[in-house]
Design brief:
The protein is of the alpha+beta class and about 675 residues long.
């Protein structure tokens, strides 16, 4: 076995590979850019080598730098993770030419499958069902429009070397094709160093289902079940699960055998994923093959018990697969939430900055479920503008889908992050969504269920009453602390508090009478009494406890006269008053937010790539105003209504903070 390997990546996946290597007794080498000097993967590895400046094109994408680091440290093999150089044939070949083992498929398989155009040709030759499209090189926007007109709308414009939603656009008209072609080519060039794109038919109401395959260098290939990855935004996955609630055993076997046949046709010899677009009728078409470890691989590991990173290392070393197809058994259900540094209330725009608070839920058993958290960050660390905004992958595994979803919801409630915007409120809300719970999924789920964008849901019904009880419990604990303030004046009455508490929870009002019973407090609401037990202390960002014996977690942040709460996908400020305080609070005027309608504000920290208008220009609603790049994504900012440009306060090349004013309207 290898004695030392280098991980040519960063963040979560670098840490993930290091953990398995350590368990196998293999020493590890990390590489890092200027921005990652203090990163977690650098701390975890046995050695670390600096390879360049913060932009990926000046560090993680430099093949020569990776090879030099291998030679300097004596690393015998390289694991590429995902993204960056993981699907670059030239990288695998360069390692081979320098006597370094690539922990991934052979260069020929990467050439055949890693290139999205070539993979479709190979699939068609292997008689795999494929989506109608044009697989040749597209030279111009006009050429793309002609092709799209022939195929029929809607169409998907996709980078040939793409992945992770980069360099991908859906177009419903010829004008959208022309603009999408330009954006896809630009993103593809900056993310992958390859600006080729292709066009294919976009299947309406599709599901995204993928098969995990695993091959060795001795001709053996097996499949490890499927993953459902239909919950996406901007063509990037947000939630994944395994198995899929759509498939039956016969369809699973058919997809798996087709994926294996395709892998064998190109002599595939590592972990890889064959992606399919599936109809609601269980029909399916080959989409692409990713010749690397997928982001969402943990859900497969949880239901099969197979460590995919370990298998990749063993295969790269030349070992035969010790697992046959008959050995693969699917056990239970796994759900994964990708926790991103992005603001779901601002159309999921990236957020950067310091992680002032980072407290993930405890890993390990949670009743009948198991919690796993794969991450590459730490409290006090920075989320950089230069890389993918992923913070962590939160995974839960349980005997049934229902139990895995409930465990995921509890874990999200217990996941505390402050200092940046993040998408936990969104994925927590999805966990409560009836359509998600029913498994009635498609890649249009987010657009269909949140057509006006996402806003923090207000608590209702049972959720609202639980939050009211938690608010009263927090207030009671804070009042207990006040009763024990030292150096109170002798002869003066001690601090005391009324038993009646009035909770204003958003638009709802609850009245509860508090009675303390040993280690618990009983809260008598109208028509119901709730017993609350918790060891929470003021200052903790997560409240853990039981309500009538049921385990509950909630996000807690102090506010004036109460706490801000997040629980079960609902969020609200809970003001806790005595009866007299409630009477006075009702007389206080509400603070009105400032009107920012006359300004175009930068929605996230980023680099101004283009200003599309001039002072005095009249702009119609929907027309582009500017383009801001952040975390490898180009975001076009459009006019929300008809406006006239009065002032332009930013220029191309400027680095802007969130809410910086780009331009002013007349």
């Amino acid at each position: 076995m290898f004695s030392k390997i280098l991980i040519a990546n960063r963040g979560e996946i670098a840490c993930r590979v290091i953990k398995t290597a350590q368990r196998m007794g293999i020493k590890t080498v990390a590489v890092y850019s200027d921005a990652d000097r203090d990163a977690l993967h650098v701390e975890m590895a046995d050695e670390a080598v600096h390879i360049g400046a913060a932009p990926a094109a000046q560090s993680y994408l430099l093949i020569d730098k990776i090879i030099d680091a291998c030679k300097a440290t004596g690393a015998q093999a390289v694991h590429p993770g995902y993204g960056f150089l993981s699907e670059r044939e030239a990288f695998a070949q360069a390692l081979k030419d320098n006597g370094i083992v690539f922990i991934g498929p052979n260069p020929g398989a990467i050439a055949a499958m890693g290139d999205k155009i070539e993979s479709k040709k190979a699939a068609a030759a292997a008689k795999v069902s494929t989506v109608p499209g044009f697989l040749g090189i597209i030279e111009s926007p006009e050429h793309a429009v002609t092709i799209a007109d022939e195929i029929g709308y809607p169409v998907m414009i996709k980078a040939s070397a793409g992945g992770g939603g980069k360099g991908m656009r859906i177009a419903h008209s010829s004008s959208e094709v022309a603009e999408g072609f330009a954006r896809a080519k630009s993103e593809a060039a900056s993310s992958f160093g390859d600006d080729r794109v292709f066009v294919e038919k976009f299947i309406v109401d599709p599901r995204h289902i993928e098969i995990q395959v695993l091959g060795d260098k001795h001709g053996n290939v097996i499949y490890l079940g499927e993953r459902e990855c239909s919950i996406q935004r901007r063509n990037q996955k947000v939630l994944e699960e395994a198995p899929s609630p759509l498939l039956d055993e016969a369809t699973r076997r058919k997809m798996g055998e087709q994926a294996v046949a395709l892998a064998k046709a190109v002599n595939y010899d590592s972990a890889g994923t064959v992606e399919f677009v599936a109809g609601q009728d269980k029909s399916f078409y080959f989409l692409e093959m990713n010749t690397r470890l997928q982001v969402e691989h943990p859900v497969t590991e949880m239901i099969t018990g197979i460590d995919l990173v370990e298998q990749m290392i063993r295969v790269a070393y030349g070992e035969k697969l010790a697992i046959s197809q008959a050995d693969v058994k699917l056990d239970g259900w796994a759900v994964e939430s990708r926790v991103y540094a992005e603001d779901p209330t601002r159309n999921f725009l990236p957020s950067t900055g310091r992680l002032v608070t980072y407290r993930p839920p405890s890993e390990g058993p949670d009743g009948e479920a198991v919690v796993r958290n794969d991450t590459g960050v730490f409290e006090g660390g920075e989320i950089s503008i230069y890389y993918d905004p992923m913070i962590a992958k939160l995974v839960t595994h349980a005997p049934t889908r229902e139990a895995a979803i409930k465990a995921q919801a509890r874990a999200l409630d217990a996941f505390a992050i402050d200092g940046i915007r993040h998408n936990i409120p969104f994925v927590a809300a999805v966990m409560q969504h009836p359509r998600w719970i029913a498994g009635n999924l498609s890649t249009g789920f987010i657009a269909e269920e949140f057509p006006e964008g996402f806003s923090l849901p207000a608590p209702q019904g049972e959720t609202a009453q639980r939050m009211a009880a938690i608010a009263i419990a927090c207030d009671h604990r804070m009042n207990q602390r006040k009763r024990h303030v030292s150096a109170q004046m002798e002869g003066w009455r001690k601090v005391s508090f009324d038993r009646l508490r009035i909770v204003q929870l958003g638009a709802e009002r609850f009245e509860g009478e508090v009675t303390e019973q040993g280690g618990a407090i009983d809260i008598a609401f109208a028509g119901r009494s709730v017993s609350v037990v918790s060891e929470w202390v003021p200052g903790e960002p997560v409240w853990h406890g039981t309500l009538d014996g049921v385990k509950v977690a909630a996000q807690v942040r102090p506010i004036l006269n109460g706490v801000a709460l997040g629980h079960a996908g609902a969020y609200a400020n809970a003001h806790v008053y005595t009866q007299r305080e409630a009477e006075l609070a009702a007389l206080m005027p509400e603070k009105v937010a400032a009107d920012t309608g006359k300004f175009l504000l930068c929605p996230m920290p980023g680099l101004v790539k283009a200003i599309s208008v001039a002072v005095g220009q009249e702009v119609k609603a929907g027309e582009p105003l500017a383009m801001v790049e952040a975390m490898k994504m180009e975001n076009v900012l459009r006019a929300e209504k008809d406006v006239t440009i009065a002032k332009i306060l930013a220029k191309e090349g400027d680095s802007l903070a969130v809410d910086a004013v780009i331009m002013e309207f007349a």
